[in-house]
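Hey team,

Filing this mostly as a record. A colleague (T.K.) asked me to run one chain through the structure pipeline before their review meeting, and I want the input and output archived in the tracker in case anyone asks later how it was produced. No errors, nothing strange. Just documentation.

Input sequence:
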Amino acid sequence: MSNCIKNDKLDNSYCRNIVNGKTKAKSALELMQSRYYAYKTVNLEYIQKTQIDNWSKAQLEEVEHWAKNSFWQHLEIINYSETEVEFKAYYIYEGRQELIHELSTFVKQYDSWLYKSGKHYNSKANIARNSKCICGSGKKYKQCCLKLLI
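Output structure:
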């Protein structure tokens, strides 16, 4: 699958090495996972560097506010191919459980993968109160992240 995933969890140290430029993403999947890590750690410089189109100053400020004020819980890979990754990213923003469900398209330019575009799906995060929390704490959702919701 990918070196960014160990035991079904994001390997922060491997993704950190990609984000910090110590190693390159070897696939579209690794780039997508490293970009999730970059959002989680609010490294927007890396996000901009790894996409085809750059944001305007206003867009950058909006994304920065959103990333800083989000509690990133879990990344779920639904499906992937050489150039596409379908994923769900769970996070809490402004006291609400949120979900991004996207099919991302990537291109390889020279020896680097870049994010090209994404198709968003209308999905809601429906997490049962008594299920294990998606953040990986091992606690029930109602005893963990549910407490962060308004």
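Quick notes for T.K.: The beta strands are 5-6, 9-10, 70-80, 84-93, 96-109, 112-121. The mean pLDDT is 91.
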